[in-house]
Write a structure and sequence with these properties.
The protein is mostly helical and 148 residues long. The chain contains seven helices and no strands.
Length: 148
């Protein structure tokens, strides 16, 4: 059996990227209040700069994200698996969200576009709270492609 990263970044990579982009868009759309409007505005601004930005960003993030989450998958897969992978990650959401954001920060640092960098920096703190709440859905989305 292929390992976690290989399954996510191999033949089904396009489907994984599409599902993660869809999750991102639903999550952004669900935001409310002033912070939510700021996040939605930043997301829309990024898409104005490059309409394919969400897919490109996710495609760039996926290999590192899969590597970062593989130890969690290995622990989950080797355990009793009484719940979903999303539930497993939810119990570790602070650690997982920190890892995911560090990965996103590294990827954002590689972007050579001042407009995108200007949009990302002010919302980074707000994104942290959103990512933490979304950890279970991220886990379940990834598991769908690994467990097939």
């Amino acid at each position: 059996m292929a390992d976690f990263k290989d399954q996510l970044t191999g033949a089904h990579k396009d489907a994984v990227v599409a599902d993660l982009v869809s999750l991102t868009e639903r999550t952004v759309d669900a935001q409310s209040g002033i912070s939510g409007k700021l996040v939605q505005g930043a997301y829309k601004a990024g898409k104005k700069v490059d309409s394919g930005l969400p897919e490109k960003a996710m495609r760039g993030l996926l290999p590192e994200l899969a590597s970062d989450l593989e130890p969690f998958w290995d622990e989950y897969a080797g355990g009793d698996r009484s719940g979903s992978f999303g539930e497993f990650l939810d119990a570790r959401k602070e650690q997982v969200s920190s890892i995911l954001l560090e990965t996103a920060d590294r990827q954002a640092g590689k972007v050579n576009n001042p407009t995108i960098n200007k949009v990302y920096s002010p919302i980074r703190g707000k994104v942290a709270k959103i990512v933490e709440k979304t950890v279970p859905e991220i886990g379940d989305t990834l598991a769908k492609h690994v467990e097939g």
